[in-house]
Amino acid sequence: MDKRIQLSHGAGGTKMESLLKEVVIPSVATDVNVDVGLDAMDDASVVNNIVFTTDSYTVKPIFFPGGDIGRLAVSGTINDVSVLGANPIAISCALIIEEGFEIDSLKKILKSIHETCAEAGTPIITGDTKVVEKGGVDEIIVNTSGIGVESPYLEHNSNVVNEYDKRKIKWLLDSNLREGDVIIVSGTIGDHGVAVISKREGYGFDSTVKSDVAPLNGMIEESLKVGGVCSVKDPTRGGLSNALWEMCEKSNVCINIREEDIPVREGVKSACEMLGISPYEIGNEGKLVMGVVGEMAEDVVSAIRKTKYGKDATIIGEVSQSDDYAGVVMETEIGGRRILPRPIGDPVPRIC
Amino acid sequence: MDKRIQLSHGAGGTKMESLLKEVVIPSVATDVNVDVGLDAMDDASVVNNIVFTTDSYTVKPIFFPGGDIGRLAVSGTINDVSVLGANPIAISCALIIEEGFEIDSLKKILKSIHETCAEAGTPIITGDTKVVEKGGVDEIIVNTSGIGVESPYLEHNSNVVNEYDKRKIKWLLDSNLREGDVIIVSGTIGDHGVAVISKREGYGFDSTVKSDVAPLNGMIEESLKVGGVCSVKDPTRGGLSNALWEMCEKSNVCINIREEDIPVREGVKSACEMLGISPYEIGNEGKLVMGVVGEMAEDVVSAIRKTKYGKDATIIGEVSQSDDYAGVVMETEIGGRRILPRPIGDPVPRIC
Fold first, then answer.
1. pLDDT, tens only, B218-256
2. Angle of helix B103-120 relative to helix B69-82, nearest 10 degrees?
């Protein structure tokens, strides 16, 4: 283990996983009776049937094409609660503000927070405001935590899963995948990462790509109404690749995806080529990756396509059994097959 | 309103109250059906019978006499949930770490978090870890949010209150005080603030005062078992004075306290004299201020004195009716009566 924290320790890849698994979680985990705990390393945890999650947002710049730190914070927390199969009922908002920050900028961020909450139908009910001297933080950091209760459609969803393959699931955990499940993404990949990087000092390339940042609780609810959804994840830090790797390792399966089916905007492709990074390894903030029982996959895709943020939803692959190797295999556009690399970290820090 | 954020906007006094009331809360509050919402500006909120709170900790130095940022974060959130009359069932832990931070220091903080959680009997079930480049934060910031459910003794407590004065209360809100209630503090005042300041660069005075930082859920439970407790608050930013002012304004009553009965350590008194600040305006992290129906006050004090952190608990005053002026009046040690000044902010920033 290193002696000092490095940027890559926070970037959502294997390096971060080792910090969490070797230092953080063993230090604080306790042997308590929770339904889904810290050791699951999922997007949220569950205790007393209450889904609970937290995230701090340190994005730079704080205003970026398609959104800002406020919309990002609310959407991110709404999504982390919702991907387990819960209705987000309340979120908290903790601001840490640098002395000298413009109150007009604060008002803009708060307006964005308010509008995103209204869109999701989830209120902020508790908060905290700290001010630190110049240099104590970089402009503003927002932490949002969220609580949720079981979606009214979660039981129907579980029944549909059970009907097809006798699998009993409740919460839509990363570890729920099984052979025969179909992998869906809800739209284009890499938009948020590219949108943020394009406005950052020192990169300075022009791009028309906007962040996809959005609350997805409505999309998840529509999917649950159809039923057959086993596992849902929002591919944020570390991108699509990291999300798929987490799902396959926790479920102990292989995931086989087809590169030609992964929707990626031209602007994202060209920006990634220019930067020498993979669009599959940069963060998304308004997309879902789902594992769905094969028989229901087309119906779930149709339902997602009818939602505001799901027009480009599509099937990108299938789950097969892992004999002794759990991994993500990609059939490339030129016809070969290769292991999809697991990112060490999101290639650019502070995109969320 | 100012154009830029100032340190005093985060210091827990009238200046902070104006930022919250004029900018933050009107921007994000929604007209939703919650039991205790953002507008109550209490220590925690309540929705679906779930008590929910959040706090970020930016204390400097991160290790101080009697505690560290980890113990502070866990205790602060446990206390904010508990003062409403709830059992804290889970907390979240979101770390924002500066690149280059020593992993050994991180481990020390995590150990402290773990030990404080174990003491309180409340697990961390969800978390987040972000790393920012040098200067993005000052060493480390910790955010903890907490959820709680109604204490098993809350109904008994309400029944005792109702028995004496027909008042119907449930959650122990700031606004519950009524004429005849007795004001209790659970111990010496000002310890945390002085302990933190004494170790800060530039102040450099010696002090044997240790922070009082501690989880108080056990103390609150013992008080509820006795019954008759109407309102509980932990006097953190802005100290005892700010806590009393918030209670009296929200309850629309007068609070009359006797200076000679307020327990203050000699070391705190002398440090405050040297710094030219009031011990009643600096933060505490292991103390409670309570309003209790008069007939039960002695019994509640006795119960608190039997708990680990309540040996110096004592009655410091009473509540009288407000005719047209709600305020805090202090009978001074030399026999006069004066309005206890309401702090503009905690006189020293970043003590929590």
1. 999 999 999 999 999 999 999 999 999 999 999 999 999
2. 30
Q: Measuring CA to CA, which residue among A178, A168, A192 is closest to residue A79?
A: A192
Is the CB of B107 less than 8 angstroms away from the CB of A53?
no
Q: Residue B206: exposed, middle, or buried by beta-carbon count in 10 A (0-12, 13-18, 19+)?
A: exposed
Contact A137 B138 (CB under 8 A): yes
A17: nearest Cα among A344, A239, A291, A267: A344
Q: Is A135 on the interface with B (CB under 8 A)?
A: yes
Asked if A39 contacts A76 with a C-beta cutoff of 8 angstroms, the reply is no
Contact B151, B83 (CB under 8 A): no
Q: Do A136 and B58 touch (CB under 8 A)?
A: yes
- Inter-chain contacts counted by CB atoms under 8 A, chains A and B: 278
The 10 Å CB-count burial string (b at 16+, else e) for A56-71 is bbbbbebebbbbbbbb
Residue A37: both structure tokens together? 């705990």
Can you tell me the distance from the alpha carbon of A265 to that of A114, in angstroms, rounded to the nearest whole number?
A: 29
Nearest to B52 among A16, A19, A92 (CB): A92
Residue A195 sits at the chain B interface (C-beta within 8 Å): no
Of the candidates A182, A177, A184, A167, the residue with the CA atom closest to the CA atom of residue A220: A184
ipTM: 0.94
Q: Is A130 on the interface with B (CB under 8 A)?
A: yes
Give per-residue burial for A240-265: e unless 16+ CB within 10 Å, then b. bbbbbbbbbbbbebbbbbbbeebbbb
Does the pTM surpass 0.90? The reply is yes
Question: Does residue A275 sit at the B interface (CB-CB below 8 Å)?
Answer: no
Which of B124, B115, B133, B320 has its CA nearest to residue A4? Answer: B133
- CB proximity A230 to B under 8 Å: no
Report the range of poorest mean pLDDT among B29-33, B96-100, B214-218.
B29-33
In chain A, the domains with their CATH numbers are 7-150 (3.30.1330.10), 154-339 (3.90.650.10)
